[in-house]
């Protein structure tokens, strides 16, 4: 099978590798669609560790890495697998260890996948791993019914958070973003209310959900949130928690990853299938793997929300030189 292989900073190649048989608790998935995770892709290609910018990734990366947002069809199952069978449509919720998902096939443990109902399309499902993470963070607040929320950042996570918070019962959800193109996109799609920081004025919110991670973003939220602030983005820099926040009892909390159980999976499916949460809007650009450097540039310039590819066909340029010239 074919896979993308990042060999060095800003260097990659398409390789052929052997996929081992699935272990007893694994299934083999033929991947139909994959999507970028912008910060992971930019960092891994750019020579920076995702969590420690002063470190370099250990090149060459594993084949298919850092791909992890994927959806596809089960084509083989280990003897101990009970919840999935050959032919099931699935999306990845995580993948611990081994190669990445920028490949034509990948083995998963069955708990790392979510089974898809017929009503959910591939482009809706491909970034369910991100939606899972966003939901874990939102559920840390507890019951948000009737509460107002300010979401910082309109990257992929923020675009999901503004929708999910409203569907979970928040009374007023506003997103703040400095990129005016992203503001216009979200308002045009009708998936939330988006504003530039200069437009917020003295507006106050019960809750804050930071999807940026930059200390300046968190600090701005702290000054407009009265009750509870969650940092979903990977924090960079120092945040000042002043006495006035302590006196109000404002909670500043980091994202806490946890197991995503069956009730959580049912909630995720319901939000997308029945409640209208728009996940497909994240997939703004299609770029094949042999032009992966173009995908990175689209993400760096913030022209793309996410870039997707189809592993069945997107590893090889099917056009001849004459066809390209025409």
Q: How does this model look, in words?
A:
This protein is an alpha/beta fold and 326 residues long. It is 27% helix and 25% strand. It is built from 10 helices and 15 strands. The chain has helices at 38-46, 122-125, 128-139, 156-167, 180-189, 215-222, 243-248, 262-273, 292-300, 321-325, and strands spanning 2-8, 11-16, 26-35, 69-77, 89-92, 105-109, 113-115, 148-152, 172-176, 193-195, 205-210, 225-231, 251-254, 283-286, 306-309. The strands form 3 sheets. Strands 3, 4, 5, 6, 7, 14 and 15 form a 7-stranded mixed sheet that branches. A 6-stranded parallel sheet has the order 10-9-8-11-12-13, sandwiched between helices. The protein has a two-stranded antiparallel ribbon with strand order 1-2. α3 (128-139) packs across α4 (156-167). The protein is globular, with a radius of gyration of 20 Å.
Could you give a short description of this structure?
This protein has helices at residues 38-46, 122-125, 128-139, 156-167, 180-189, 215-222, 243-248, 262-273, 292-300, 321-325; strands at 2-8, 11-16, 26-35, 69-77, 89-92, 105-109, 113-115, 148-152, 172-176, 193-195, 205-210, 225-231, 251-254, 283-286, 306-309. With 326 residues, the protein is α/β, with parallel strands linked by helices.
